[in-house]
Specification:
By secondary structure, the chain is α+β, with helices and mostly antiparallel strands. It contains eight helices and 19 strands. The longest helix has 18 residues.
């Protein structure tokens, strides 16, 4: 096996994508004395480099757990080898800036749930929060979750139904995007390469912002409510708010949904009813549209089909602008 092949194998190991046979191969490599030979360098330089590596480990650490205890011990041993022995891994890091050392400093022990089944997997966290984890997605949380804080790390897609606790906000890390709530339900979906992340809200309010070194009083973020979403572009660090593709009815618990059968109802009253049901704001650009009358049965239809029908009946059009729907027309 060439050095490059070994680099790739170790990188896949850290990402949890190796087979048991490949795990055994790496374990045998680590246990070999030949791989713990120190690099010839002045003692002062060795200590300074060791301190720098540990600073990077502490600064970039994120909870990612191994499959078995043997992997935890193995990773701990490799980290110690990096800081104290400066063996093979250190020499490779000097020649490959984006090598496995970058992946290694992001590793930490924790509790991991990985869904390898074709259907959604329900996970119940220690605080009572439930998570529906989609196929090939991964959730990691610390062993002391819910003692002082509630933080999880998501790779992929999941739907969260968070147990309310005003003393401990629930925080989801998806790459460098942070989603923070007290008690609500929402979905997070990360693209395969992690370049884009979408957060959509079912109930409650969600604060979404990009992780940053700047002071907390100047976060780059927004607050979204039911049937709203944001799309985060990791390359530009830009957050774009909008409306979900299929809004759902969000009436208070126990309140029955009113009939959407309208007979000579004003356009303004019809939109007010839709706002009450979906929580979406509608803006009529031309006041003369407000008093146009609608006769229609909108029961059983999706929101945007309902909008298409009532707008056509008064010769108007609609467009989504962020989290608001604007309606334009000349009036009746």
């Amino acid at each position: 096996m060439t050095q490059e092949e070994f680099n790739q194998l170790l990188k896949r190991y850290l990402e949890g994508q190796t087979t048991e046979q490949e795990d055994l191969l790496l374990t045998e490599w680590y246990e070999s004395p030949a791989n713990r030979v120190e690099v010839a360098m002045p003692e002062g330089q060795k200590k300074e480099t060791g301190a720098r590596i540990w600073r990077n480990i502490r600064a970039h650490i994120q909870p990612v757990v191994s499959r078995q205890v043997v992997r935890l011990a193995w990773l701990s041993g490799v980290a110690a080898c990096l800081a104290l022995g400066f063996g093979w891994l250190y020499t490779q890091s000097r020649s490959a800036p984006e090598s496995l050392v970058t992946a290694l400093v992001r590793e930490q022990t924790g509790i991991e749930v990985r869904n390898s089944t074709p259907s959604e997997q329900e996970v119940t966290l220690p605080d009572g929060t439930t998570v529906l984890l989609t196929q090939n997605s991964r959730l990691v949380y610390e062993k002391n979750f819910n003692k002082l804080r509630r933080e999880v790390y998501l790779t992929g897609e999941a739907f969260f139904d968070v147990k309310r606790d005003v003393t401990k906000p629930f925080v989801v890390h998806t790459g460098d995007l942070i989603t923070e709530v007290l008690g609500t339900s929402f979905r997070i979906s990360q693209s395969q390469k992690g370049k884009k992340t979408e957060v959509s809200v079912r109930t409650g309010k969600v604060s979404v912002y990009a992780d940053s070194d700047s002071r907390q009083s100047e976060r780059n973020g927004v607050i979204i409510t039911p049937n709203q979403r944001v799309v985060y572009d990791a390359s530009t660090r830009h957050i774009t708010p909008g409306i979900v593709e299929q809004p759902v009815v969000i009436l208070p618990e126990g309140e029955a949904q009113a009939s959407l059968m309208f007979q000579e109802a004003s356009f303004e009253n019809v939109l007010a009813q839709l706002t009450r049901m979906y929580g979406i704001e509608f803006v009529i650009s031309n006041p003369s549209l407000q008093d146009c009358h609608i006769t229609a049965d909108l029961n059983g239809l999706s929101l945007f089909i309902q909008l298409e029908l009532i707008c056509k009946s008064v010769d108007a059009t609609y467009e989504k602008r962020g989290t608001v729907v604007f309606i334009k027309g000349n009036g009746c």
